[in-house]
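Postdoc handover notes: sequence design on the structure in folder B. Input tokens:
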């Protein structure tokens, strides 16, 4: 069986001026379909960096990273964005909801990018209902609690 995520000898180095900071050092990891994986570690240990690599937001400095059969480093920025749009759901730590859009519009926005037509509003409302947010669908992020904002971000992902 092919893994959804295959990481082989991956390292990530950031340059800050003349200083090089190696955040990930020769990581190996496989994630199979239906695996449940938790990344744990202290602040600064590379958890977010690893997620950014898997999500194609960044590319490794060295090693091989394959996500859903795609070599991430070989993909263009546009191809990585397409992979995220079609196949990877992200819930960011800061949620990144669009403040001028309602909860349903924040969810609907991604569906529009995916090319859905008129049914996208109904689908967005259905997902919000599943997450217990049906009565809050027309509120803006500033009118929602942190937990409610997180559920909107989950619905969008």
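Designed sequence:
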């Amino acid at each position: 069986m092919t893994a959804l995520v295959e990481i082989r000898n991956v390292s990530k180095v950031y340059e800050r001026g003349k200083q090089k900071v190696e955040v990930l050092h020769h990581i190996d990891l496989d994630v199979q379909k239906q695996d449940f994986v938790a990344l744990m570690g202290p602040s600064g240990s590379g958890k977010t960096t690893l997620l950014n690599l898997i999500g194609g937001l960044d590319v490794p400095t060295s090693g091989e990273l394959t996500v859903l059969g795609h070599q991430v480093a070989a993909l263009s920025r546009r191809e990585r964005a397409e992979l995220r749009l079609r196949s990877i759901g992200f819930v960011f730590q800061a949620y990144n909801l669009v403040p001028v859009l309602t909860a349903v519009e924040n969810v609907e926005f991604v569906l529009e990018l995916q090319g859905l037509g008129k049914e996208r509003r109904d689908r967005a409302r259905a997902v919000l209902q599943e997450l217990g947010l049906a009565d809050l669908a027309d509120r803006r992020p500033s009118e929602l609690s942190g937990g409610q904002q997180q559920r909107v971000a989950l619905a969008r992902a």
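Context for whoever picks this up: The radius of gyration is 18 Å. Don't rerun without checking with the PI first.
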